[in-house]
Amino acid sequence: MAKLWSGRFSKGATKLLDEFNASLPFDKTLYAQDIKGSIAHATMLESVGILTQDEAKSIVDGLKEIKTLIEKGEFVFDISDEDIHMAIEKKLIENIGDVGKKLHTARSRNDQVALDFRLYVQEQNQNIVKLLEKLIFTLSDIAKEHTDTILPGMTHLQHAQPINFAFHMLAYINMFKRDIDRFENSYKRADILPLGCAALAGTPHKIDRVKTAQLLGFSGVSENCLDTVSDRDFALEILFNIATVMMHISRFSEELVLWSSYEFKFITLSDEYSTGSSIMPQKKNPDVPELLRGKSGRVNGNLISLLTVLKGLPLAYNKDMQEDKEGVFDSVQTVCISLEILAEALKGMTVNRQNMQKACEVGHLSATDLADYLVANCDIPFREAHFITGHAVSLAEQKGKDLSLLSIQELQQIDKRIKLDVLEFLNLKNSMNARDSQGGTSVSSTEKQLENLQKWIEKRA
Q1: d(CA 36, CA 18)
Q2: What is the pLDDT averaged over residues 97-119?
Q3: Is the link from the previous residue into 316 a cis peptide, with omega within 30 of 0?
Q4: What is the set of active-site residues?
Q5: d(CA 340, CA 363)
Q6: Which of 10, 150, 324, 445 has the highest local Cβ count within 10 Å?
Q7: Which of helix, strand or coil describes residue 151?
Q8: Band of the pLDDT at 5, cuts 50, 70, 90?
Q9: CA angle 25, 31, 37 (to 5 degrees)
Q10: Stretch 351-361: mean pLDDT
Q11: pLDDT tens, 203-213?
Q12: Distance, C-alpha 251 to centroid of its chain
């Protein structure tokens, strides 16, 4: 059969052109969205009198039959059809005859692909949000068990101040909550119908775009057809949102890799989500977080690739935009399996409280508390208090022990103004609980953050 657009041409396309030009090998992923859009389009065409009731029924039934064939694996895809739109339309005409040719009235492949791709992205926005929610629920369950589990909070990967493990988990929870906000905001921005814009300038047929939007669940229709058929902001946004999620996952994964090493031993990953070495029988490798860390690079590449494709395109549709889908499909697949396996791996993770506690006893985590004590209780300016504290840290280093373990006599050797009650301030748990400001790491502040998180979870249930 000749190509559906071949009327203007005297020669057929070469096999090489078919292979180079075709998007069917990857855009067949959009078959369900294409058929859904075509059913809505046919229904609208009937409502405005362009199709008769019998014609619309024949088209809709034919489309449903094709969908069944595809899902059963019985549909034969031919690369000469170029794309999923032409493949389905050609099969429809073969099955129901010339009435199938009427389906393309008042639309173009330009607005058709914009619709299919937008429907796919919108569906995946919602799917990724659900996976993010599941990950947050898992992290929340871990946090609830560890509001009093102390570990070193770090800056520059150096011991800084004592925090609790729940507080650390809540930091990642907040990252993933922001990710959800981004996907949901993107969904709202993209919730407009592109179909009915035809090639770029609209159509002379008296169609009802609002009707089509309602049938497909969009909240409105696009305002400018020239912009609509060339707009891929929604694809860029999901790529950016995914890249940001994967960056957050990568940061978390880096800590899981460090924490599972013998140098830290803060956590133990379950055997179910670890691997071994082909030569070193003692090894238990954190391959899941390592792979998660690595996969952030490929989604970053997909974002940059589409930005580069779009940056120099004149209005409206250009064939370059055929390069918009593969990166999105890959990024969606990557983030979905990443979110799923991270949540499952965390469920089997063991938190080693004693090792976290021991790690807090090196690095002089309560040094800032000594400086604050000198300011508040000894009326010493902060810069001088900072200098005195530095001397105390140096003394502790010389004696081979942590600042929190210095005696009152040793501290008073440095400055006579230091009083006995300083030892309460240097205690690591007291130091952690002293940070009781809103958003701080104290047990009470952490529990308040968990209460707020639970309210957020209940609202989304």
Answers
A1: 26
A2: 98
A3: yes
A4: 156, 277
A5: 36
A6: 150
A7: strand
A8: very low
A9: 140
A10: 96
A11: 999 999 999 99
A12: 13
Which amino acid does the sequence have at 104?
H
d(CA 460, CA 444) in angstroms, rounded, equals 25
Burial call 186-205: b when 16+ CB within 10 Å, e when fewer: bbeebbbbbbbbbbbebbee
Within the chain, what is the greatest distance between any pair of CA atoms?
Answer: 100
Helices (H), 311-352: 326-347
Mean pLDDT in the chain? Answer: 95
Dihedral (C-alpha) 254, 257, 260, 262: value to the nearest 10 degrees? -110
The percentage of residues in the chain with a pLDDT greater than 90, rounded to a whole number, is 91
- Residues belonging to the chain: 461
Is the separation of the CB atoms in 115 and 195 below 8 Å? yes
Q: Which amino acid is at 322?
A: Q
- The whole-angstrom distance between residue 404's C-alpha and the CA centroid of its chain comes to 41
Exposed/middle/buried for residue 95 (C-beta within 10 Å: 0-12, 13-18, 19+): middle
Residue whose C-alpha is closest to residue 43's, from 64, 27, 28? 64
User: What tokens does 406 get?
Assistant: 């210095």
Q: Is 158 exposed, middle or buried (0-12, 13-18, 19+ CB in 10 A)?
A: exposed
The whole-number pLDDT of residue 20 equals 86
Amino acid at 47: S
Residue 4: predicted pLDDT: 53
Residues 129-146, mean pLDDT to the nearest whole number: 98
- Sequence-distant (6+) residues with CB within 8 A of 361 are 402, 404, 405, 428
Q: Supply 97's token pair.
A: 């005859």
CA–CA distance, 424 with 437 (Å, rounded to integer): 19
